[in-house]
Design a protein that fits this description.
The chain is an alpha/beta fold. It has nine helices and twelve strands. Helix 2 packs antiparallel against helix 3.
Length: about 300
């Protein structure tokens, strides 16, 4: 895998979006459900002995003769887990799906680390296994180095990778980058695991131009890269139409299942550069957003 270093230019104007309250245990700049030492008023509660008198709202006391203590929103940090499918099927296309997924993962890790938020990045596959974590930009070179060592091979056990990630502790966001070219029962298990792993689950569905618009003018024999199984494919206009219909049905079925499981579904076609996806479509889907003081 090769990561184009130029894709990170200008990304410091963005950050990972957080529509839900953050659950991190460290101070940060993301809204959480916790009440504490923030600056934005959240609520009031009756005074109890031992409360800091500086938190008493004396204006309310003067009007209502009721002693209430002010509660403030406590901002916390965000945690992010990124899982990349490193199976053999991700090695197809120009650019390869795995290279595209790697660049997207690197961009998202950059956004989180630039905001001093915690990142765990996993690559799942037979020879592609890898894991790295960080919470400062000093970890970013290590992430890039790990990604650039990865090559697609064999089959990736995505449910197992997600289960292992859940064992490391629940995170605010979990993002899975995969082509989902697996059997239906494995796909269902993968999506269920994904939904259970993070407070907000996101599927970045990586597909190449050869899958979206294959050349079916002539018949061919397609070989499954992960199992070696050979499948004859009939060519011609009828075959192309049938393929387009089946592809649309398959994608719609995945998107519908994601909606049922409350997984954010985002297509990540290799025909769109990673940086433009991060700043464009992923922003529209509230996967990314403008950072504080960032551009619109």
């Amino acid at each position: 895998m090769r990561i184009d270093r130029s894709i990170f230019a200008g990304l410091d104007q963005l950050r990972v979006a957080a529509p839900n309250p953050a659950s991190g245990g460290r101070p940060g700049d993301r809204r959480s459900r916790a009440r504490g030492g923030g600056v934005e008023l959240a609520d009031f509660r009756p005074y109890t002995p031992g409360d800091d008198l500086r938190l008493v709202d004396w204006n309310i006391f003067a009007r209502l003769e009721t002693v209430l203590v002010r509660l403030f929103h406590e901002d916390r940090d965000l945690s992010l887990a990124i899982i990349i499918d490193g199976s053999a099927s991700m090695g197809f296309g120009t650019p390869r799906k795995l290279d595209h997924a790697g660049e997207l993962a690197a961009c998202l890790a950059f956004l989180a680390l630039h905001a001093r938020e915690r990142v765990r990045l996993v690559v799942a596959g037979r020879r592609a296994a890898g894991f790295v974590k960080g919470e400062r930009m000093t970890a970013f070179p290590t992430i890039i180095e790990m990604l650039e060592r990865i090559e697609p091979d064999g089959a990736a056990d995505l449910p197992a990778a997600l289960a292992a990630e859940a064992d490391r502790g629940k995170v605010d966001h979990v993002l899975l980058l995969t082509d989902l070219l697996v059997e239906p029962e494995i796909r269902e298990n993968t999506l269920r695991r994904l939904a259970a792993t993070g407070t907000r689950a996101i599927l970045l569905h990586v597909l190449g131009d050869g899958e979206l618009n294959p050349d079916l003018d002539e018949g061919a024999v397609v070989v499954d890269a992960e199992t070696g199984e050979e499948v004859p494919v009939r060519g011609g206009k009828t075959a192309a139409k049938a393929y387009a219909t089946e592809l649309a049905r398959w994608r719609a079925e995945i998107e519908q299942r994601c909606a049922e499981l409350r997984i954010v579904y985002a297509p990540a076609f290799t025909t769109a550069p990673a940086r433009s996806l991060v700043a464009g479509d992923l922003r529209r889907r509230r996967v990314t957003e403008a950072s504080r003081g960032g551009g619109r």
